[in-house]
């Protein structure tokens, strides 16, 4: 098992993030084991009996569950995220994307991650869940602070940011508990969902909404930043999308761009028994982190990790995870991504602008800042 002799944390690198892993399994300085190899990542993700997701002291639904309990909550949650269900919101997402694109085109300076990605993420999320529009600036400020807290590694700061977001969720949920007849939206449906044979408890509602919103706001912003960075540097691909492609082709292109520079960096597990992984012997109770970004660039699986090969790499792509915890939100996220990218390209040509481009660091990926220049089509 690899350990960097310099003592550097293999989770915290910048552009080296895009370098192939030197070893499929590595030790971090705090004792956590990092899974870098593609085959090893798939093995861990597909085996909840040996690699449990119950790693947090806090309620995490459904990600912190295993087995039948995980399956029960996934059935509840998946019903809200089926393609036929989320596609009803496509027109709203496209209107939101058009407004964000028009505002960006009129601005003097534009950051792809915050001015386009984060603003669209907040507006599309509130449109989907039925949250008040006046929450927009609070949520945008929260995204910025959450990025900063995450980068800092200060647990008290990240805890404060999480508590702030739980407070926002509580503000939204309580009126729907007290007066459900006044609301007709996804949040109210969840609050009064009885598909488990009972209503959800308040902490369960908050946990599910936190999973749907808090992490996804940052992930959507980062994903849009990654895609726009690629399109700014690959004008032929940008023009191909501008001319219009089928939904399936857009999905394949977006998946491949995100594979090359995956902003969904990692998920945690803990061993339930002694295991052998990538030639390394791990004891029971070992904390393990699947590094999706590294696995998606493993040269053992992808001969040239930088090559743009949507069809050839699709089967091995781990952007959305694999196994029982495969991301149920992909249909929703892809619908949002397609709306934002297509509406923007209909209005503007995208290129890099003067200004500092900054890569995001562990535990997030992609770009923290990417200035773009938009010229009307």
From TrEMBL:
Gene3D superfamilies in alphabetical order: Cytochrome P450
PROSITE patterns, alphabetized: CYTOCHROME_P450
GO molecular function list: heme binding; iron ion binding; monooxygenase activity; oxidoreductase activity, acting on paired donors, with incorporation or reduction of molecular oxygen
Pfam families cross-referenced by the UniProt entry: p450 (PF00067)
Keywords from the UniProt entry: Heme, Iron, Metal-binding, Monooxygenase, Oxidoreductase
Family in the record: Belongs to the cytochrome P450 family.
Name of the molecule in the record: Cytochrome P450
The species this protein was found in: Corynebacterium hylobatis
